[in-house]
Amino acid sequence: MSDASAPAGVLVADTRDASEIYGVHGAPGLTYWKALASRQHLEAEVEAVEVARIPPGGLSGEHRHTRTEEIYFILRGHGEFLVNGEVRPARPGSLLLTGIGTVHGLRNTGAPAGVTDPGYGSAPEGHLEWLVIEMPAPATSEVLHGLAPDAPTAELTERKTETMRLHDLREEKAVDPAGVFTGPLRLVEIRELADGDGAAFSAHTSEHTVFVLTGSGTATAGDTAVELTAGTAVTLPFGAEAVITAGAGGLEFFHAELAVPERGPR
């Protein structure tokens, strides 16, 4: 999975060399897609951490989530979220939480007149690019592991009060998905580090995925370090540790925390 020489126990990937896929979710046209980490690398109940983009006029087709919860985080470009029959604006920093039962899609409409916001991504001009984290709901996970799904616990019932929610993560900086999600996602945030500052991550109780939005720096695990630039993803599987350090000019990154099941490794 790693696209670079990664520190021990850490997955490193970037947005280069995405696959070309036609007809995603039944929509005509082309989607560029790449997995940055997947369930084979993680103990948390995660299908995949991905990056996707569609060219001007492109569409990621509407589809209903019946077994998984999913986030879309817009990196670059402008468009429309199609959610439960409604249209919501999609622009850099938009974070859509899609819970079980929600119908959603995404269309590239191009930037409004006078808007030159380059966003966070490295996609070609005019493309709409976004991060995806897709996770099985708890009942789905039980079936996948050959266990009889239990009735929803009080904790899960309390956490889920909505089927979707739209945030501006650039403004809010941190979002707790409780109320929409019942699965492993515990936190989504944007963090900024000044030149030379560091942020330590330990995946001993939860796993982490980091995506560099702007700036540069290094990810260090043990005696090994790898260079970070915009578009680099660093994922810490269970048991890994790493320090993200900002280079000259600082570093801004997206971070998601994923709980590991109490039943232990899969």
UniProtKB/TrEMBL annotation:
The keyword Acetylation does not apply. InterPro entries: Cupin_2, GPI/OXD, RmlC-like_jellyroll, RmlC_Cupin_sf. Coiled coil: none annotated. The keyword Metal-binding applies. Keywords: Metal-binding. It holds the Pfam family Cupin_2. Residues 52-111 form the Cupin type-2 domain. This is Cupin type-2 domain-containing protein. It comes from Kitasatospora putterlickiae.
